[in-house]
């Protein structure tokens, strides 16, 4: 006979299936916990009397059916509580079904010329989530140093003086990761790459975005020229859509080979420590906010429509984030390079194409390279076969650019030699033997493995 007690228990289990205490049914499986990431961020300090807001983004990899609460508290490091920033503590809620929340920290503006300063944000979480890291860093960028005089140096900071070359992650590693994404730059930074190389174009609404090509067709799920698209339109695109690990961006692979396709659109969760935004086309400012302590190489592309103040915009944003001597602003377009240098003489720059070609050709044989105090580096290919633009070189012209003589002449002029784009082990070792100062590569993971091997044990076998 069925008792009212047992009947009531059965009805309760049917009516409230989320309850897990019913002895005559299996518990409903719990929802897997989300990974909660709060990435480091930098922001300019502002002028005296201003209180700009540095904002941390808290991101879950997948939404939860119930709220997740993040507790936070600022802790002084080189920045001083009450002088550089306002101590902040409390909690923020990522509501059920959503992925993100913001943590604002107010800064105190001043006019002091000083290095960037940092504070920590200590974190704990309540709810069905686990932290990627229990602490993250806020960087207060110095925006007060005047940039109206050329940078003067005796020892070129971009030369390695016989040590191993710098590992330049070309576009964040074109073959290793989805190029020009914050995910790619984050991964190569963790792997040990020394310099993050990025290209900058201007959008239809005069925003600065990190992208190599004139159009979005090769790397994203969209079509069109960058100059014809607004930032909002570019934000809708999946910048990892055509990426295949170890191959770059082939368009003829099975769907399952495109392992990051859909992260940007929220169709699949991001890797640990990242968010969907890290797989979209970033702005230059976002890259500066995310990587305040990494060396950068920012390549100026042609200002296609000529409508925006392109070079001045780049100079201004670099200045706001205090990036003068830990960045190289590079351009193969002589006009862009000269325009940028005129508005930002203190920022390190490389020699543009026409000027560099004249110097290289003039130094052949017994020639020498004269002082070029306005620049810090040659950025050159190993030979002219990599210079493929229409009209750039006479047909059938070939020249070995990187030789013992060229490297010696460049170093005698106190210029660093940074070689692009080197993607094989054999070529990496050959460039090291010449004593170059940096190797730009689409395969920064391979280069890092070589650099982490003792010099006398490096081999491609």
From TrEMBL:
GO terms for molecular function: phosphoric diester hydrolase activity. The keyword Repeat applies. Residues 165-451 form the GP-PDE domain. Pfam families: Calx-beta (PF03160), GDPD (PF03009). GO terms for cellular component: membrane. Keywords: Calcium, Repeat, Signal. InterPro entries: CalX-like_sf (IPR038081), Calx_beta (IPR003644), GP_PDE_dom (IPR030395), PLC-like_Pdiesterase_TIM-brl (IPR017946). GO terms for biological process: cell communication; lipid metabolic process. It comes from the Bacteria. PROSITE patterns: GP_PDE, PROKAR_LIPOPROTEIN. PANTHER family: GLYCEROPHOSPHODIESTER PHOSPHODIESTERASE, CYTOPLASMIC (PTHR46211:SF1), GLYCEROPHOSPHORYL DIESTER PHOSPHODIESTERASE (PTHR46211). This is GP-PDE domain-containing protein. It comes from Halioglobus maricola.
């Amino acid at each position: 006979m069925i008792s009212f007690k047992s009947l009531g228990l059965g009805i309760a289990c049917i009516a409230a299936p989320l309850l897990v205490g019913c002895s005559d049914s299996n518990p409903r499986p719990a929802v897997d916990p989300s990974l909660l990431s709060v990435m480091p961020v930098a922001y300019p300090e502002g002028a005296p009397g201003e209180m700009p807001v540095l904002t941390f983004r808290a991101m879950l990899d997948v939404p939860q059916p119930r709220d997740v609460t993040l507790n936070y508290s600022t802790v002084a490091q080189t920045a001083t509580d009450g002088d550089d920033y306002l101590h902040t503590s409390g909690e923020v809620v990522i509501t059920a079904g959503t992925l993100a929340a913001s943590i604002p920290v107010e800064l105190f503006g001043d006019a002091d010329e000083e290095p960037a300063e940092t504070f920590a944000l200590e974190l704990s979480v309540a709810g069905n989530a686990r932290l990627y890291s229990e602490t993250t860093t806020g960087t207060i960028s110095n925006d007060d140093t005047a940039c109206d005089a050329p940078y003067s140096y005796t020892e070129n900071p971009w030369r390695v003086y016989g040590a191993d070359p710098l590992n330049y992650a070309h576009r964040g590693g074109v073959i290793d990761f989805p190029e020009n994404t914050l995910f790619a730059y984050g991964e190569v930074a963790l792997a040990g790459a020394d310099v993050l190389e990025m290209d900058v174009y201007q959008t239809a609404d005069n925003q600065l975005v990190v992208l190599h090509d004139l159009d979005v067709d090769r790397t994203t799920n969209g079509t069109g020229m960058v100059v014809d698209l607004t930032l909002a339109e570019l934000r809708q695109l999946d910048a990892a859509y055509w990426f295949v690990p170890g191959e770059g961006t082939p368009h003829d692979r099975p769907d399952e080979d495109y392992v990051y396709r859909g992260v940007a659109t929220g169709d699949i969760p991001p890797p640990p420590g990242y968010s969907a935004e890290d797989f979209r086309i970033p702005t230059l400012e976002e890259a500066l906010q995310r990587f305040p302590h990494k060396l950068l190489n920012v390549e100026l592309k042609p200002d296609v429509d000529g409508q925006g103040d392109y070079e001045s915009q780049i100079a201004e944003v670099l200045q706001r984030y205090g990036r003068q001597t830990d960045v190289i602003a590079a351009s193969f377009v002589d006009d862009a390079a000269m325009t940028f240098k005129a508005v930002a003489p203190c920022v390190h720059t490389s020699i543009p194409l026409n000027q560099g070609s004249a110097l290289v050709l003039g130094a052949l044989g017994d020639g020498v390279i004269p002082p070029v105090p306005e620049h810090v580096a040659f950025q050159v290919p190993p030979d002219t076969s990599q210079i493929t633009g229409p009209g750039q070189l006479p047909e059938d012209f070939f020249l070995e650019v990187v030789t013992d003589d060229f490297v010696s002449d460049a170093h005698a002029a106190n210029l660093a030699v940074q070689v692009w784009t080197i993607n094989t082990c054999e070529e990496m070792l050959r460039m090291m033997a010449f004593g170059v100062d940096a190797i730009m590569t689409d395969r920064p993971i391979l280069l890092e493995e070589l650099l982490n091997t003792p010099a006398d044990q490096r081999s491609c076998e």
